[in-house]
Structures are given as C-alpha cells and as structure tokens.
Amino acid sequence: MWEQFLPCAAASGWEWYYDVPVGRVQPLGGEVPSEWQAHWARLRMKRVDALGRRPGEICVVEVKPHFDAAALGQLAVYLRCVRQDVVPQMTVHGWGVCLTCDTDVLSLAAESGWLIWGRVDGPEIFACGGFEGA
C-alpha cells in the first residue's frame, strides 16, 4: 500500500523520513548501569513509521495492513509527541496508510481531521480528510 500511496504524497512536495523516534522514555527506576538505561531507552522509544516535511508542515504517518482502533491510538499518541517536540508554528497532520480499515475508525479519523488512505474490497481507493494528492 505504501508504494501506491507514496507517489501521491510525493507529488504534493513531501520529503520523507522513516522510523523516526518521538516522545520521551521514562528511565528505569533505581540504580542501574548507564548501558542498561541506554538499552531501555532504545527499546521503549516510540517510532513513527514515516514523517513527512514540507515548508510549515509535518505529517505523521502510521502504516498498517489493517487500520483499527489500536492503530488509531498509536497515531494519536505519535501526533501528541510530535506536537510537543516541533516548532509551534508548524501544522501537524495525521495520516494512516493501510490495506483495510474499520468503518468506525474511518469516521473517527475524519472527525479528528486525520486522513486514512487505503483500499476497500476492490480497486477503489478510500480516503477521508483533506489530502490533496489522493
């Protein structure tokens, strides 16, 4: 699905970064060696599947075969982390790229202003939100 989505997004001027760490990790409690803290941080760090940038905008993308409530929750957490970490003047978008999507998730994403991009059973592509390239 990502390969089909990327040309649409690239045509809109997005530059892409992959497996981007976001947010913070709570350190291990107690006195533990610093190398354990480092391993813990690497294992527990939240990572965005793809992060798009263009002037004044950032796009957080979660890619799943099936976009369900858990995927929507991941997207919500990643969006919050990115909004806390980026320059406040930038607009932050949330997108999901998938093969299939729960109907309830699609409608909640639309209400939140997030795009879910993928295929319904058959050749037609569904998208909600305001993605110019889809």
List the helices and strands and how they pair.
Blueprint: H1 2-11, E1 15-22, H2 34-44, E2 46-54, E3 57-67, H3 69-85, E4 91-101, H4 103-112, E5 115-119, E6 125-128
Parallel strand pairs: 3-4, 4-5
Antiparallel strand pairs: 1-2, 2-3, 5-6
Describe this structure in words.
With 134 residues, the protein is α/β, with parallel strands linked by helices. Helix content is 36%, strand content 36%. A six-stranded mixed sheet has the order 1-2-3-4-5-6, sandwiched between helices. The relative contact order is 0.18. The model is unreliable at 128-134 (pLDDT under 50).
What is shown here, in short?
This protein is α/β, with parallel strands linked by helices. The chain is 36% helix and 36% strand.
CATH architecture: 3-Layer(aba) Sandwich
Radius of gyration computed on alpha carbons: 16 Å
Give the strand line-up of the largest sheet.
1-2-3-4-5-6
Number of helices: 4
How many domains? The number is 1
Biggest pleated-sheet summary: 6 strands, mixed
The CATH topology assignment is Trna Endonuclease, Chain: A, domain 1
Order of helices and strands: HEHEEHEHEE
Helix content: 25-40%
Shape: globular
Q: Approximately what portion of the residues adopt beta-strand conformation?
A: 35-45%
Distance between the amino and carboxyl termini: 13 Å
| Name of the CATH first level | Alpha Beta
